[in-house]
Design a protein that fits this description.
Elements: H1 2-18, H2 21-24, H3 26-55, H4 61-87, H5 93-116
Helix pairs in contact: 1-3, 3-4, 4-5
Amino acid sequence: MAVGTLIVGVSWGMVLYYFDPFKVGIFAVIAFYVTLFLFLIGFFALAGLTIRRIYKKKDLVFKQVTISFRQGVWFSVIILFALFLESHQVFTLINLAAFILLFAILEFIFISHTKKHA
């Protein structure tokens, strides 16, 4: 996971360095968002896994990876949503708070669903 995150991080850096979104067009914008999304997923998943490994040593690694990856996706989607709204100049804290609340509810559903089947 760390190697993949590093590769995508380098790819994102190359997109930032080499592509001018005004000259290349939609391809550069899509490449920016896709590589940033993948990098953020890897970064947040690795950070979450590291924190979980330190504080929850008794849990299975597979369980920790699954939870960290899911939460990494949530955080990445929230950040990209905020960037997308800001690029269209419609970003407000109310939009962000509502989106975060939606993902908090989804995470609560995941947690309660896994506890029922555990």
